[in-house]
Specification:
Elements: H1 11-17, E1 29-34, E2 38-44, H2 64-83, E3 91-103, E4 112-123, E5 126-135, E6 138-151
Antiparallel strand pairs: 1-2, 2-4, 3-6, 4-5, 5-6
């Protein structure tokens, strides 16, 4: 008999891998992952999100930068799990670059943003990912993300130093 490993994470498990907290924790559940390769997670978008008060009161739309951030947080979870490391209060994940970002559809209250992130490569402390976020199977945003993981005291040092 073969046993299958549970490939999901609930919010409490996610908080073990991300230093982010409310209101900037943008991953609600991990649905599936393959260490060193890929991850799928969701963000449930509700009308109670703080950013909807100003973006925009007459037509609430999730800001594009927060969709990118949700994909980056998903990528960070995969990276920490792949390294078999849980970050401490000194761990910080920084963007190094965002390439080819394309926004295809708005994300509104009631939507479930599904993030699919794949590791393209890891070199000299820089992780590069292909990230796509969709709602109901329709792409909302896609980009290539580059991030590095540092101790807070090493933030000014370029990658590879």
């Amino acid at each position: 008999m073969t046993t299958t490993e549970n490939k999901t994470l609930d919010i409490n498990q996610i908080k073990e891998y991300l230093p982010h907290r409310y209101p900037l924790l943008l991953v609600d559940r991990v649905l599936d992952y393959e260490l060193g390769k890929r991850i799928t997670a969701i963000k449930n978008v509700t009308v109670n999100e703080e950013f909807f008060n100003g973006h925009f009161p007459h037509k609430p739309v999730m800001p594009g930068v927060l969709m990118i951030e949700a994909m980056a947080q998903t990528a960070a979870i995969l990276s920490f799990m792949t390294m078999d490391v849980k970050p401490d209060e000194n761990s910080v994940v920084y963007f190094v670059g965002i390439d080819g970002a394309r926004f295809k559809r708005p994300v509104e209250p009631g939507d479930q943003l599904k993030m699919d992130v794949e590791i393209l490569r890891v070199a000299r402390g820089i992780w590069k990912y292909k990230a796509v976020a969709s709602v109901d199977g329709k792409v909302a945003v896609e980009a290539e993300l580059m991030c590095t993981i540092r101790a807070a005291g090493d933030a000014s040092q370029p990658a590879g130093q």
